[in-house]
């Protein structure tokens, strides 16, 4: 418990520094914020006008499709809020500054993964959260469905964390971080819509092999009462398995690390 | 002309200096197309008719058309200008006996050529895997008008991107953020690179058609699909030329004013 508080305090400190760094340039942050909000609105409008006309998408009505989209955004933005520092990892590796982190009395993975919370996402998360609650109410879920939804969202977050850890470990071994992280994000963006729109075997690949479906689609389906207990348990197993594998891979990569400049 | 041909050749060769970046960039484009392809296939799953005036054949052609047009119109090197201005590297170019605009346009053409080649490979692979029904335009006149609009789109995008980069003269720190807003968000959505503009309500479409963005992707693809009436065609040409004219004037103005403001910091 003491250790959790220790790391929580460090995270607050690092996040405060990160926010202050963002706020030092208000013009840039305002432009990025406007861009992010517009992108969300445009995509939302696209879904709204499309499904208003066609009445359904892969068997889902307008409210359900919007809920899939909102859930995807909630996971995506929350992940970026916590793990934004991962985007700067390559710079640490090529300059050798990663060495300085290794000697500090803080878990190095925690530092490179969560060392700089994103202020822009911090601003947008509440709005997305409120939208998820509003559209979730339209689906009239039971208490149990809401509970499974929350648990699967936590699982989605763990899976997303695993992928970020794998990308960082891969970065240590190959110095390639920026492209892999963007590929990861593009893959995740396939979950903007329910994975049911994809044909077999792509649907299975996106559900189980590259678990985009587990991150974005399954929580929403749970809230709609469309999941069997077997699938829910399997998705928790995948979450556990991935975090285990990613931590092992990180430990392996760390042993192979050879400093760049020192 | 010869020196710009040399710039083209060097720039083309430079693209291969970081092949991984190029390959990853192309893979990213494929993911976006896969999402749109399956989304629209799903929309047409239970209907054999038209939706928003598109048959399944035409909408899938539109999706595949996005790959080619994005490779041709949106591929660019000009986005490096913001960095040149903020770092003061612009000085190096000002001292050389070349036109700064022609230099970057030559580099853009090199980037477009390479991306276009890649896009044809991607389309071939996607065709073999997905086997979509597509619409082949056989009317030679429509094809010529399509190519004409494509050239206008290249000029328009170059001007928009140039102007966006020149903002850095006044706000050196806002180079990437202004490109994010104007190029990645506004250009992509309003050009029809994410979805066809005509699925939006009429009143929204009317405003969007007044901007230069639909003439980058949407209108050329509409011409290819044979969906543009003669009157709209003339109107589109007029609006495109209007914007090219306005943007050239703005570019000259911003360039002159910007250079006066430029300090070449650190040089």
In short:
The complex is a heterodimer of chains A (262) and B (267). Chain A is mainly α. Helices cover 78% and strands 0% of the residues of chain A.
Write the layout of secondary structure elements.
The complex is a heterodimer of chains A (262) and B (267).
Chain A: H1 2-23, H2 26-54, H3 62-83, H4 89-95, H5 98-102, H6 108-114, H7 119-138, H8 143-174, H9 178-189, H10 202-209, H11 212-223, H12 229-256
Helix pairs in contact in A: 2-3, 3-7, 3-8, 3-11, 8-11, 8-12
Chain B: H1 2-15, H2 19-43, H3 56-74, H4 81-87, H5 90-94, H6 100-130, H7 140-166, H8 175-190, H9 202-209, H10 218-224, H11 230-261
Helix pairs in contact in B: 1-6, 2-3, 3-6, 3-7, 7-8, 7-10, 7-11
> How many distinct helices of chain B?
11
Strand content of chain A is: under 5%
Shape type of chain B: globular
Number of helices of chain A: 12
Share in helix of chain B: over 70%
* Alpha-beta content class of chain A: mainly alpha
Structural class of chain B: mainly alpha
* Helix and strand element order of chain A: HHHHHHHHHHHH
- Beta-strand percent range of chain B: under 5%
Task: Profile the largest sheet of chain B.
Answer: none
Total count of domains of chain A:
1
Number of domains of chain B: 1
Protein name (chain B): ABC transporter permease
Keywords (chain B): Membrane, Transmembrane, Transmembrane helix
Pfam family, one (chain B): ABC2_membrane_6
Organism (chain B): Candidatus Woesebacteria bacterium RBG_13_34_9
